[in-house]
Amino acid sequence: MQRIPKKAYTTEFKEFAVKRVTDGESISKVVKELGLGDQTLRN
User: ∠ at Cα 5 (13, 1), nearest 5°?
Assistant: First the structure.
């Protein structure tokens, strides 16, 4: 069984995603637009 490699996100990308949520956008909207898993953003 092959492992799926983990994606590496830049610090800037992480800050951008978190800022969008803290500015009032829903997590589900942000993860859809950025192609993330919702748990990834919650972590």
Answer: 160
Tokens of 17: 């995603």
Q: What is the pLDDT of residues 17-39, one digit of tens each?
A: 999 999 999 999 999 999 998 89
Q: For residues 9 and 19, is the Cβ–Cβ distance under 8 A?
A: no
Token reading at 7:
């994606």
CB-based contact 32:20 (threshold 8 Å) = no
How far is Cα 1 from Cα 21, in angstroms, rounded to an integer? 36
With 0.85 as the threshold, say if the pTM is over it. no
